[in-house]
Amino acid sequence: MSNRPPKVPFVNFSLQHQPIQSQIAEAIRKIIQEGDFILGQALAEFETAFAAASGVKYGVGVACGTDAIALGLQACGINPGDEIIIPANTFIATAIAVLQAKAIPILVDCDPETALIDLTAASTAVTSKTKAIIPVHLYGQMVSPGQLLDFANRHDLIIFEDAAQAHLGHREGYRAGSIGKAAAFSFYPSKNLGSFGDGGMLITNDAKVADKMRTLRNYGALSKYLHTDIGTNSRLDNLQAAVLNVKLPYLEKWNRDRTAAAQYYDTLLEPLKHKGIVPIANHSNSGHIYHLYVIQITEKSSLDRNTLQEKLAQHGIQTGIHYPVPCHLQPAYQNLGNRGDFPHAETLCQQILSLPIYPGLSNTQIEEVVGAIALSLNC
Fold this sequence. Notes:
Largest sheet: 7 strands, mixed
Mean pLDDT: 97
Oligomer: single chain
Number of helices: 13
Structural class: alpha/beta
């Protein structure tokens, strides 16, 4: 196995961080000097700024995106035993968070073109116990706000957005996180807005939800040593908030860079569609902020997904799979469904491949990737 660096890495954080390294260092130095580490000024500033950028009133920082969902559902009034509709082809954290809230995840299939939750399938999953739907804005593309609001109104459900991959994404006049009662974000380092460790946030326009979330994240304490709820310790620390404060003003430009890269991929990959290489459909135009650029290797391809991935690796092209196993086929969660229950999700999991995409990815590198795909297919 070669130890040479990849010709095109899957991600390259240095292209984002090097130009603002001195700003980040100064922000961290200030936190250390002031000793303001937990629930301090930097966090308050970031909560306000990120909520405003997302088009809502309140932000509550927590330790990770999973906690943002689990605690956020509780803050929205979800009770043990309530059913929550989620897509089968999401990262397992969505299901874990529902279970941590002592609710019941009800899986539904996805749209085969966009990989987003199929709201027609979701309608058939609604029961008298269903209290909410968690639309996952997958890969950086939002689920249609108009369709979501219509669905929730018809069935009298809470919309709780999983926007972990959609920082400042937009569609139909809505920002990601501004459609429903509340939304959860992750600031895992690889996200469009990433910290230098784990981090998450709940955003909402509901003051009561925000207040409840602040209590739940801090041991259930309404004030110091007065515990009104059974909470936990889940706080976005000030060091991470300080880093995110520095990075937030650059996020719109970074998102535009990703969108431009995706558009160039689309152009170069167009001739390969008849060879079975089909990008996941974008129904959001410039509102898709491309946390990931995902293609399908369909039945028309001369190679299956795994073989193509191996060949790209031989060319020095790093790729990923998001995600290779749907929730109901994970060994720990087989009670959520059986093989064959969600055919679109199961097919996608066998066909999808995530190509390199990040701010600073050059057109030359994109040409390298697509050229390697074409060469692998003997085009």
